[in-house]
């Protein structure tokens, strides 16, 4: 049995009094696409930097491909098999892409460079200073995978990629996973998790709140019903056994999450004139909301009882384009974490 | 050793333009300094008297042990080696080295290197090695400029003594690089590292000058300039081997310390 790709035990990092992450326990199995989801500032980057040995933990430890991060010699050897894409990767401005890759190749090899460059092409002979954000990101992908690592750790790897390249990258990740490569990546974009990951860990405020298989998460989801009527809608009419969540929106419409059959709903609707009615698949945002509402994690539950300001910590993407599976590009506002209970902010109908 | 050399070569290649510019400026400075010398000698001024009239601290700082400005070697010690070399070129190398590690940490490119099987010690060593060719190039170009310049104004300099001053002077610059490297591992921001590095080189230079012949002269022992005397080397041909040993030891110790600091530190 090979050791897991990453094992984290009680990992804690404080910057002075400021919590980076606290008491993180997590096992990332080999050969999986593992998502690490959380809003900005939740501690994702801190956790990744700890795992890769860039930061010294305040407490706890981690093992990467079996090598403890505090065993310098073992950890040094194992890094031959690790690839990394930092958040907002920075190279050497005056150096061309080709020479940058030559440099990294001299340190850890580049068996797959050409193949990767065919897939993620960049203007190799221009200095990196002239690269767009997307090209820099592609260069980062090539350098992370070109020495054929067994584990790749990425910090928000798709930011800056245009939607087409993003799709290509997702596909590439799946193929890598099928080759047995373990991938651990942080994101705050739920659609990405849904589309790409086998399993996801959710972090908020520096603590791990859940680790779930994506399929399990989605199985819990139910359907979302939106209903508007010229009549005043009473929530009490819609409190069925099947109801997971029901609320009246600010515009007077009803938003209902139900699982199971629709019989009770259809009966209830008889009492109303119907202006608009929509039944759709649950977006992953709704699943997470559901998860935070009803999930087994006491802490999440507790937090969700708070006021809006704590709810805003809840992970959600909220971009309307998520149903297409393509997260809309890429500007600084992309995938902003929003309050899942605030549908105006989420832009959903 | 291969990884260090790869890192050194990559770093050096990025610095070629800067080294070229500094070399050109220094050669021009040498040219101007030497070009002025003949008229300097002809002027109707008693330079020995002029030197005497300087405040003592000023003499120690900028004149060194030389008492005769009428010969080219004494003139060069005062005008070139004591001031330009020890203070300005030394500060420049400390400044330049201040960005070696902090530059990569500051803009986050260090992560892309250090995620590979490279220890931080080897990374620091590679960065240090990158500056050695820069020191050698600057050293040799200035040496060549002095030799050519002296030839052009038909003055004699003893090449062996000139080599001595450039050998020990180069060693001094390597120490300045080491100090910059250490600052570069201590501070996460390039500007702070560079500021600290210049501050140390400049500050200890002054410390040496200001404490000489005072009750606090021992404080000057902390200064690198206490261990190199261009006047002794160029005018008299005397090598202070104890001083050379100190310069070598300091360079080694500071580089080791820089590596240790960087090994233990958070990267961001």
TrEMBL record, chain A:
It comes from the Archaea. Residues 6-230 form the ABC transporter domain. Gene3D superfamilies: P-loop containing nucleotide triphosphate hydrolases. Residues 296-349 are annotated as: Disordered. Pfam families: ABC_tran. CDD domains: ABC_DR_subfamily_A. Transmembrane segments: none annotated. Keywords: ATP-binding, Nucleotide-binding, Transport. One of its GO terms (molecular function) is ATP binding. InterPro entries: AAA+_ATPase, ABC_transporter-like_ATP-bd, ABC_Transporter_VariousFunc, P-loop_NTPase. Residues 336-349 have a biased composition (Basic and acidic residues). This is ABC transporter ATP-binding protein. It comes from Haloferax elongans ATCC BAA-1513.
From TrEMBL, chain B:
Pfam families: ABC2_membrane_2. One of its GO terms (molecular function) is ABC-type transporter activity. The chain crosses the membrane at residues 19-40, 80-103, 124-153, 159-183, 195-212, 241-262. Signal peptide: none annotated. Coiled coil: none annotated. One of its GO terms (cellular component) is plasma membrane. This is ABC transporter permease. The lineage of its organism: Archaea, Methanobacteriati, Methanobacteriota, Stenosarchaea group, Halobacteria.
């Amino acid at each position: 049995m090979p050791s897991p790709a990453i094992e984290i035990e009680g990992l804690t990092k404080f910057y002075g009094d400021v919590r980076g992450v606290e008491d993180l326990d997590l096992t990332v199995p080999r050969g999986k696409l593992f998502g690490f989801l959380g809003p900005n500032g939740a501690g994702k980057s801190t956790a990744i930097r700890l795992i890769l040995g860039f930061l010294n933990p305040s407490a706890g430890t981690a093992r990467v491909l079996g090598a403890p991060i505090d065993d310098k010699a073992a950890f040094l050897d194992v890094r031959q098999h690790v690839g990394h894409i930092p958040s907002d990767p920075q190279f050497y401005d005056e150096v061309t892409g080709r020479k940058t890759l030559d440099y990294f190749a001299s340190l850890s090899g580049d068996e797959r460079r050409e193949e990767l460059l065919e897939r993620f092409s960049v203007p190799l002979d221009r200095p990196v200073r002239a690269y767009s954000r997307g090209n820099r990101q592609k260069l980062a992908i090539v350098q992370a995978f070109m020495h054929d690592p067994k584990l790749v750790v990425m910090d928000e790897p798709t930011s800056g990629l245009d939607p087409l390249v993003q799709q290509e990258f997702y596909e590439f990740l799946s193929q890598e996973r099928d080759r047995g490569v373990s991938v651990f990546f942080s994101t705050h974009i739920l659609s990405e998790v849904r589309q790409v990951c086998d399993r996801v860990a959710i972090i908020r405020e520096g603590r791990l709140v859940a680790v779930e298989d994506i399929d399990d998460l989605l199985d819990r989801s139910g359907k979302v019903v939106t209903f508007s009527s010229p009549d005043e809608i009473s929530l009490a009419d819609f409190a069925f056994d099947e109801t997971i969540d029901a609320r009246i929106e600010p515009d007077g419409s009803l938003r209902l999450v139900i699982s199971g059959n629709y019989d009770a709903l259809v009966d209830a609707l008889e009492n109303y004139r119907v202006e608009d009615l929509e039944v759709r698949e649950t977006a992953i945002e709704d699943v997470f909301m559901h998860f935070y509402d009803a999930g087994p994690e006491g802490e999440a539950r507790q937090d969700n009882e708070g006021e809006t300001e704590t709810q805003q910590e809840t992970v959600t993407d909220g971009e309307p384009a998520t149903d297409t599976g393509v997260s809309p590009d890429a500007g600084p506002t992309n995938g902003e974490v929003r309050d899942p209970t605030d549908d105006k902010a989420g832009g959903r109908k | 050793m291969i990884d260090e050399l790869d890192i050194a070569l990559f770093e050096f290649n990025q610095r070629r333009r800067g080294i070229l510019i500094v070399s050109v400026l220094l050669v021009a400075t040498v040219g101007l300094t030497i070009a002025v010398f003949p008229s300097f000698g002809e002027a109707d001024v008693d330079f020995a008297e002029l030197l005497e009239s300087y405040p003592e601290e000023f003499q120690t700082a900028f004149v060194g042990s030389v008492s005769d400005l009428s010969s080219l070697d004494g003139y060069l010690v005062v005008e070139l080696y004591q001031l330009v070399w020890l203070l300005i070129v030394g500060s420049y190398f400390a400044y330049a080295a201040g960005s070696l590690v902090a530059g990569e940490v500051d803009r986050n490119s260090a992560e892309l290197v250090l995620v590979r099987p490279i220890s931080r010690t080897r990374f620091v060593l590679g960065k240090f090695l990158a500056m050695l060719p820069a020191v050698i190039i600057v050293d040799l170009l200035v040496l060549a400029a002095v030799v050519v310049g002296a030839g052009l104004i038909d003055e004699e300099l003893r090449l062996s003594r000139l080599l001595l001053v450039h050998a020990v002077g180069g060693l001094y610059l390597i120490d300045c690089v080491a100090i910059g490297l250490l600052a570069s591992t201590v501070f996460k921001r390039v500007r702070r590292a560079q500021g600290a590095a210049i501050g140390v080189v400049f500050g200890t230079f002054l410390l040496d000058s200001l404490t000489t012949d005072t009750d606090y002269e021992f404080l000057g022992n902390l200064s690198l300039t206490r261990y190199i005397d261009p006047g002794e080397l160029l005018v008299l041909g005397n090598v202070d081997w104890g001083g050379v040993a100190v310069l070598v030891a300091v360079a080694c110790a500071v580089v080791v310390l820089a590596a240790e600091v960087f090994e233990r530190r958070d990267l961001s």
